[in-house]
Amino acid sequence: MGTTALVTGASSGLGVGYAHELARRGADLVLTARRLDRLEALAVELAEKYGTVSTVIPLDLAEPGAVAELVRDLAERDIRVGTLVNNAGFGHYGSVVDASADRVHGQVAVNVAALTDLSHALLPDLLTAALTHPHGAALVNVASTAAFQPVPRLAVYAATKAYVLSLTEALWYETRGTGLKVTAVCPGPTDTEFYAVAHRSQAGPRRVMSVDEVVSGTFAALDRQATPPHVITGTSNRLVAWLAGVSPRRAVVTVTGRLSRR
Ligand SMILES: NC(=O)c1ccc[n+]([C@@H]2O[C@H](COP(=O)([O-])OP(=O)(O)OC[C@H]3O[C@@H](n4cnc5c(N)ncnc54)[C@H](OP(=O)(O)O)[C@@H]3O)[C@@H](O)[C@H]2O)c1
């Protein structure tokens, strides 16, 4: 309540879910993604349902200078962000050698570079918000259960998510005692447009969770007095991540390689 939350990737899937829950809790929103029509429709829906104000900023986060442009835009509109949800991201299914340079670079640009630059640029605002809204300031970076092991045919994607997990856990430590809640969310397969965008027809053998399940798992972690450095949504996903951590790396990559066959 009385704060502004910025959600990247708010045109689809988890981003829409996060925007709804933040608006339901009384936050005004900044919604960004490339598809302007989707963002505008969401802004209207949030206003009607929760009475919140949304600012829509269409942006391609893979473009050089996109984050600087977004930060400039926020400053010009005098918007101070109290909660940042770095949710925008995509994967590409297939071996690295067969992927186009755009798809390979794009994953690093959106999942890693934009998330890092935006976290860095907005951290001062988030820390200020944590002082004025002791339970209302958060940095949520969306990683994945792919962060816990290499995944052949999703090699670049899994590596970007390992980076997001590592960065976020270090930021969690660096900001301890400030009141800012920092966490990396690690969903497993979730029912969004992710697989269509990745050019993969199915999610593999694991249970596909709903957006609502992942969003409520995220907020359950944020609502805890001591927010954990990462949250894995779903019991079987927690088990898989734990197994990957205690098994020999060679065995792990062999298993994930077999499971990621079409
Ligand atoms: N679904 C899963 O199984 C799953 C599992 C683990 C983690 N995740 C992670 O969850 C996050 C959300 O994905 P999702 O599952 O909700 O997939 P999604 O439905 O495809 O949504 C992805 C969002 O990212 C935005 N985006 C992609 N490329 C962008 C770019 N270049 N510039 C700006 N925005 C961009 C998209 O918006 P536009 O296309 O309009 O730009 C869209 O709003 C991602 O970080 C993903 O890696 C998903």
UniProtKB/TrEMBL annotation:
Q: Which domain of life is it from?
A: Bacteria
Cellular compartments per GO CC: membrane
The record's listing under Gene3D superfamilies reads: NAD(P)-binding Rossmann-like Domain
Mind telling me which InterPro entries this protein's record contains?
NAD(P)-bd_dom_sf, SDR_fam
Keywords on record = Oxidoreductase
Q: Which GO molecular function, any one, fits this protein according to its record?
A: oxidoreductase activity
Protein family (similarity comment): Belongs to the short-chain dehydrogenases/reductases (SDR) family.
For this entry, the protein name equals Oxidoreductase
Q: Which organism is it from?
A: Cryobacterium arcticum
